[in-house]
Structure formats: C-alpha cells, structure tokens
Amino acid sequence: MPVVASGETTLAVEVRDLVKRYAKAPVDSLTGVSFQVKQGEVFGFLGPNGAGKSTTIGILTTRIRPTGGRAVVAGVDVAADPVGARRVLGVVPQQNNLDRSLSVRQNLIYHASYHGVPRATRNQLADSLLEQFGLADRPDGRPDDFSGGQIQRMMIARALMHDPAVLFLDEPSTGLDPAARLFLWEKIAELKEAGTTVVITTHDMDEAATLSDRVAIIDHGTLLALDTPQQLVQGMHSERTLDCTMEPGPTGDAASLGIALGGLAGVRAVDQLDDPAGTGWRYRIDVDGEPAPLVAPVATVVAETGAKLTDVRLGEPNLEDVFIHLTGRALR
Ligand SMILES: Nc1ncnc2c1ncn2[C@@H]1O[C@H](COP(=O)(O)OP(=O)(O)O)[C@@H](O)[C@H]1O
Ligand SMILES: [Mg+2]
C-alpha cells in the first residue's frame, strides 16, 4: 500500500491548510484545517453539528472539492488523483446510500466489481464479511427490510470489499440503539487490530474517548485541539469537581450551606445544582487539586447544618468538559 513517510511514522492521512467555502455560503465551512493520521490509528473527529466533520470527510473521500489546501490519503493526493484515492480508501457516509434495488450481498459484490476485485475473490469476501458483520442469515434481503444498525453494518462491510487502507466513518453510531452501537465499537476495534486505519466522526464524546487513539476537536470549521483523549483531559487537571447531594435538616438553608462549603480550604467555587429528584440539595464544588481529601471536611460542614449527605461523586473531567472549556458551549 503506498504511504507517505514522514520522519519515523508512516502517514495514512495528511491534511494541510484545508479550506472549504460552499457556493453562496457567507463563511468558510473549513477555515484552514491541518492534521495527520498515522497508519493503524483510530482517529476521532469530534465536534457539534455543523462543525465541518462531513465536509472534511467529503474532501478526503473525493466527494467534495476543497477551495484550498491539500489532502493525501494513503499516499494519494485526493484532488490530483481521485480515482486512485477511491481505490485506497473506504467510506461509510452519514446517510444510507445502499442501492435499494439490490440485495445485501449484491450491494457488496457490485461495489467490489466496480473497484476491480476479481470475481472469485469478491464472492468469497462478501460471504466472509456478511458473516463477520452478523448479516449472513439474510444475504438476499433488500436494505429496506433491515434495521438502522444492520444498514450501518452493511455499509461498513461494503466499504471493506476492496480492502481499503483507510476507512472513513461519518457519524456511524448516530441513531443506533445501545446494543447496535456496542457491536459497531467492537467491529472498529477489530479493524484496528487487523491494521486498518480508521477515521471516525462523532458528536459523542464517549464514543470519541472510547475508540480513538487521538481526537481532533473541531468547531466552526477550525481545529481547536488534537491529542490523545487522556492528554486532552489531563490538560484539565485543575478542573476537578466534587458533586454532593443531601437531605436538608429541620433548620439551615441551602444558600448559607453553600457559603459554608465555599469557605473550606481547597474549594474554588460552589454552584447549587437542580436536584432531579426535587427533594434534596445538590452542589457542584470546584476543587483545587484532588477532590477526595475534601470529602470529610464537606461531610462535617453538612452535618453541622443538620443536613444529611446522601451522595458524593468525584468528578473526573471528560472530553465534554474539554469542549466546554475550549468553546464555552456544550457539545449539543
Ligand atoms: N452543500 C452545502 N452548501 C452550503 N453549506 C453547506 C453545505 N454542506 C454543509 N454546509 C455548511 O458547512 C458547515 C459544516 O457542515 P458539515 O461539514 O456538514 O458539519 P458536520 O458534519 O460537522 O455537522 C455547516 O455550517 C453547514 O451548514
Ligand atoms: Mg456531518
């Protein structure tokens, strides 16, 4: 497989200063995006709706022409040689684009024949992929007769029929039920094991953190951060929290308890939160350093007001917090 050597690592994707302005659009949908994906990596593209994820995937998979910049997939410049690029990449688009007039198996076979896979190989490969993706019991069914999760699996199986070096998955789990999502996650892990490079977009931070070796956070067409999920979260180490829920006592009030908690050493800020159960008081305490040593002093202050602590949670920051920190907004 042709690849670009850069230093010691081998690159599966290289993107430099990618700009996209759609016709009549008032602003750029990509403002100059650069990143690299190493061979064998699962690379997550995390951002809210409209961030520019599908535009990036569209350019990398030759469906969309960039306004500026350069994109190379498995050594092939996608703008200079789109046909060559399509031979080395596989894509699962955000929308179902299976051929509804063909059976599941035919969808796979036709895709392979389009890409020049020999007949004997493609029949064998189709059967093996249908098996691998749990679709072997109804190979002659039409796409319309399957669930969303099965459709998603069919599109992945189809994309793998020409043995691509890099697989692009655009929001593959959006709309899937938890079981279908878990199955998809397992399959992506298996692909990585087998050495396929996977680029996945998602607006789900759990998915990005679970699957990705590295995550690029994108918003308004601009890359805001790019690192391993661990490193992204570690950069937030000062943003630990202690969430407490309590039953109010006969005396005391929520506001003065909040003030008392705020007076403890190591506490940076206290926010009173809504209590979903509606009966107790909840506080989120922002902590300098480790939250655990504050549990005992918090319990003491709470007890002094006559209230009773019913729940304590040590909040580790996650990718959602990273996103909020970078943009001031929640992911959705
Ligand atoms: N064909 C198009 N014409 C004009 N604007 C578009 C088109 N496709 C996408 N956009 C705009 O480009 C931005 C990025 O869209 P998209 O790449 O689909 O984001 P995402 O996949 O992250 O939700 C959005 O503001 C969207 O409205
Ligand atoms: Mg999209």
Counting structural domains, the number is 2
Spans of at least 5 consecutive residues whose pLDDT stays below 50 are none
Tell me the total number of β-strands: 15
Principal-axes geometry comes out as elongated
Query: Residue share in helices?
Result: 25-40%
CATH homology superfamily of the largest domain: P-loop containing nucleotide triphosphate hydrolases
Structural class: alpha/beta
CATH architecture of the largest domain: 3-Layer(aba) Sandwich
Biggest β-sheet: count, sense, barrel? 6 strands, mixed
CATH topology of the largest domain: Rossmann fold
- From the N-terminal CA to the C-terminal CA, the straight-line distance is 39 Å
Tally the helices: what do you get? 11
What is bound: which ligands?
A: adenosine-5'-diphosphate, magnesium ion
Q: State the order of secondary-structure elements, H for helix, E for strand.
A: EEEEHEEHEHHHEHEHEEHEHEEHEH
